[in-house]
Specification:
The chain is of the alpha+beta class. It contains 14 helices and 20 strands. Helix 2 packs parallel to helix 3, helix 11 crosses helix 14 and helix 13 runs antiparallel to helix 14.
Length: about 550
């Protein structure tokens, strides 16, 4: 209270001094007491005052009401009127200046103090309210979304610059208008107005603090063609149709009674354009990918067609070349038997019969090889694993090979196990070993020792991309002392109808290693080849297999 300064404005000097003394006795500071409106305005301008006590019936050019209004408007100082009595017109004019109290003369100290304290308190509350309103107004003006606030009747009480820009309504034009006139939205497909205006509907508090707009006499939005996912078009003042996203929330008083609504919305034109561009980009990318896949498929088809054409050409060449010799043998032997058979001894006849049989077996094997390669190329060659005793299987195959080979060759079987039951495809394994052993014998024209070695190791890692690692890795190694293969040609020898350039007159189709590779791949294994000209060739086959556990 010691710092509160009071300005006294009385019509008479004596009354002004008496009031000044009373206030000082109450503990207030009264820097000056004046008797005219002009002096009161000058004093308010030059001093930091907390309250002005002013006689309502001041005489002079500026009366009490006019002086109070200027002090309130220019310096924001609360005013308390002093009056004995006044006519009705003066009182009405005084009310327009929103005074903070009236004191009726003669003044009582307690009542005077109470009125002054209430005036100061009310003025502080008013300032805090103004600051709060200014803070909220500045915030709502500066945010990037459009905001419109209405009272309970749907009349617009606030609109920020973003909302002005989107709707096309200036603040001075929008304030006092029904929200449905400024915030006018329609169904973009049918251009049906959406009943969103609280000025024409009852505002009810719904779950999630959203506004429920209800009008018993009108159909619901769904009945009128609206859906929950439907975008909205705002019709601006100039008729522009602007796609928006919006929300509506109630404004509640301390008793949870709805006293208005706040509309928050944004122009989504740019977003829709971006989304449209993104969809178009995705569509184009998808179309490009589909075209690329189609082009790749066409290229694969053309490459396959080219390969098949080349395969057919090689096949025709191979058949015409490889079939000519055995068919000539068959023809010549049959003609000789037909002409001279009656006079020949049995031993000589049997020689020609054996030649015919060998030629037929060769052609049969050639046809089988060609059919096997064809099945592999078309994906019809299947992997059918069954239980096989591996040591016995290899031993029996070696015995068969020994019965047909020349005496110059010897097949040495090397294995550190007596027997082992495994799961693999015996048909494919037979093709692998038979072709490799036949090549080793055929391309060792001077004879020598052919080695077939089998070793088995536990395996925890698959050789190829399979789901489970096998329990065993079987490694077959076939070694010969033959003519060898030029290094630059080894990488192509696993292709169909490919033969080394140094084979000379040694017969062959170039299908053996191609068949071996296909059969190894179906097992999920690997095949490796090492060769040196004049020294020999070693082929290593690694097959991941499972040990047979029995029933």
């Amino acid at each position: 209270m010691a710092n509160q300064q009071i300005l006294v404005v009385e019509d008479e000097q004596i009354q002004a001094l008496e009031l000044q003394k009373m206030l000082e006795n109450l503990g207030y500071q009264v820097p000056i007491a004046v008797t005219s409106g002009e002096a009161a305005i000058a004093a308010a301008k030059d001093r930091q005052l907390d309250v002005v006590l002013i006689d309502l019936n001041l005489s002079g050019t500026i009366n009490g009401v006019s002086a109070a209004k200027q002090i309130r408007d220019r310096f924001n100082i609360p005013v308390v009127y002093l009056t004995e009595s006044s006519d009705e017109e003066t009182l009405q004019r005084a009310k327009l200046t929103t005074p903070f109290g009236y004191l009726v003369k003669p003044l009582e100290a307690n009542y005077l103090k109470t009125t002054i304290e209430m005036a100061i308190y009310r003025h502080q509350l008013e300032q805090e309210l103004k600051q709060s309103q200014q803070w909220f107004a500045t915030t709502l003006h500066s945010i990037g979304e459009a905001v419109i606030a209405t009272d309970a009747g749907g009349i617009i009480r606030f609109i920020n610059p973003v909302a002005e820009s989107i709707t096309g309504w200036r603040r001075s034009q929008a304030l006092g208008k029904d929200v449905s006139e400024v915030f006018c939205i329609v169904n973009p497909s049918a251009h049906l107005p959406y009943p969103e205006a609280p000025g024409k509907h009852n505002l009810q508090l719904a779950e999630g603090n959203e506004i429920s707009l209800e009008n018993i006499d009108e159909p619901s939005p769904v009945d009128r063609g609206w859906t929950a996912s439907c975008d909205r078009l705002l019709i601006a003042k100039d008729g522009r149709q602007i796609p928006i996203d919006d929300t509506v929330a109630p404004i509640n008083d301390e008793n949870n009674k709805i006293i208005g609504a706040v509309y928050v919305f944004r122009d989504i034109s740019a977003r829709q354009q971006t989304e449209a561009l993104e969809k178009e980009r995705i569509r184009l990318e998808t179309e490009i990918k589909e075209r690329s896949l189609a082009e790749a498929e066409i290229r694969r088809s053309l490459e396959l067609e080219k390969e098949l054409s080349e395969l057919k050409s090689r096949l025709i060449t191979t058949i015409s070349h490889e079939f000519r010799t055995p068919m000539s043998v068959i023809l010549s032997s049959s003609e000789l038997l037909q002409v001279y058979g009656d006079g020949w001894q049995e031993e000589k006849k049997q020689t020609h019969f054996n030649r015919i049989e060998t030629a037929i077996e060769y052609m049969t094997a050639l046809v089988e090889d060609i059919m096997l390669v064809g099945e592999a190329q078309s994906g019809k060659l299947r992997f059918n694993p069954t239980p096989v005793e591996l040591v016995g299987f290899c031993t029996q195959l070696i015995e068969e090979m020994n019965s047909t080979k020349s005496d110059r060759h010897h097949i040495q079987w090397i294995c550190d196990r007596q027997a082992i039951e495994v799961i693999l495809d015996p048909k494919l394994l037979r093709q692998i070993l038979k072709n490799l052993l036949s090549n080793a014998i055929k391309y060792s024209p001077d004879g020598g020792e052919i080695k077939l070695e089998l070793t088995c190791h536990p395996s925890n890692t698959p050789l190829v991309n399979t789901q489970n690692a096998p329990s065993l890795l079987a490694i077959f190694r076939i070694q010969d002392p033959g003519i060898g293969i030029p290094k630059v040609e080894t990488q192509h020898l696993f292709e169909s109808f490919q033969r080394a350039t140094n084979v000379g007159t040694i017969r062959g189709t170039g299908l053996g290693l191609a068949i071996v590779q296909k059969c190894v791949q179906l097992h999920g294994g690997q095949v490796e080849l090492e060769s040196e000209l004049g020294i020999g060739t070693t082929v290593t086959v690694k097959l991941p297999i499972d040990v047979y556990q029995g029933d």
